[in-house]
Write a structure and sequence with these properties.
The chain is an alpha/beta fold. Helix content is 24%, strand content 22%.
């Protein structure tokens, strides 16, 4: 049995509570408590490893000195989990603060705050020069019979990319569909076109090739795949304003490997929901409990205070009921869960 912790959208900043661009409440200082509680919970539940699925600190941290201190505070609290490794994913708020190379640094490499990162495996494509415009944050790692594939949805983005670079130009093409001067605004965009805002991004052509190769390799090696991404791909469970720009391309690829992909876990939306997909039938609910067969796949987008137990694919998460105002705050802005993957035919 393999158990791991997952936390999304911590978004700590040493500032008073406020609101997101869309008016959603944000509890910036309270996020440190969430990180600490999550890490201790992962330890108490004997998780084998943990994943930080992105947006570790908030873009409102401001200058590097404040951002360095905020990141150090989060890392110190996440350090309460010491059973296994942490794996990190780059979200949009990472790129509001620092470049990709910084986020590829170790969480605990140095006591010097300016050297800490989130354990994301950052690399260059096709032996390109090691500069920000060429850096990407997609990678994979294996645990027992499972292969975890991290998708970088800020491969193509306007964030920390030069507008004259290849990736920067592609981002400009996507954002040209947005009529607003403020590209974070979806005003005037209809339906799924609302995804063409600057806080989303796309998966590039090279990454799609890599992803296909990894999925085929997983088939050949009889690995069960868990997809991890900051940005969601599946419209039924994600507001249009939070979708990956080329979600349709990614979903088409996933469809070709539906028998090997057992779950897709995302953040970014600050909501709690999941979708089970079986034999072309789709059903969306919000954190109610049901069982899934081995022919089903699970797609989750940020869930709160729940446990997901997976028998190859899943038993779905259950919302924790509470009257505590502090826990209601956590549910709004910060999510963490424990996930158990079983190779046997039973769940516990």
């Amino acid at each position: 049995m393999l158990t791991f912790g997952l936390i999304a959208d911590i978004q700590h900043a040493p500032i008073p509570d406020g609101f997101s661009f869309g008016g959603v409440p944000r509890y910036y200082k309270h996020a440190l408590d969430t990180a600490k509680v999550a890490a201790k919970d992962f330890s108490q539940q004997s998780c084998d490893f943990a994943v930080n699925i992105g947006d570790t600190i908030d873009g409102k941290c401001g200058d590097d000195t404040i951002a360095n201190g905020a990141l150090s505070d989060v890392v110190d609290n996440l350090g309460n989990f010491q059973n296994g490794e942490w794996y990190g994913i780059i979200g949009n708020h990472e790129l509001y603060n620092f470049g990709r190379k910084r986020w590829g640094s170790s969480m605990f490499a140095s006591a010097t705050t300016s050297e800490r990162g989130i354990n994301c495996q950052v690399s260059t494509e096709n032996n390109a020069d090691d500069i920000e415009d060429n850096l990407v944050g997609y990678y994979s790692f294996d645990k027992e019979d499972f292969r975890f594939i991290v998708v970088d949805c800020y491969d193509i983005t306007s964030l920390k990319r030069s507008p004259t670079s290849e990736k920067g130009k592609l981002a400009s093409d996507y954002l040209s569909k947005n009529p607003n001067e403020e590209k974070n605004s979806p005003v005037g965009l209809q339906n799924l076109d609302q995804r063409f805002v600057a806080f989303n991004g796309a998966v590039g052509a090279n990454q799609l090739i890599w992803l296909r190769n990894m999925l085929q390799k997983s088939v050949d090696e009889e690995k069960k795949v868990i997809i991890l991404s900051h940005v969601p791909f599946y419209p039924p469970i994600a507001p249009p304003t939070t979708l990956c720009w080329n979600y349709d391309e990614v979903l088409n690829l996933f469809g070709e490997f539906k028998n090997v992909i057992k779950a897709t876990l995302c953040g970014h939306t600050h909501t709690s929901c999941y979708e089970q997909v079986r034999d072309g039938e789709e059903r969306s609910e919000e954190c109610s409990r049901s069982e899934a067969t081995s022919q089903q796949s699970l797609i989750c987008s940020s869930f709160s205070f729940s446990r997901l137990i997976a028998n190859m694919t899943c038993r779905t998460p259950t919302r924790t009921s509470t009257t505590s105002s502090s826990r209601r705050r956590w549910r709004v802005s910060h999510q963490f869960t424990r996930i158990r993957l079983l190779n046997s035919g039973t769940t516990t």
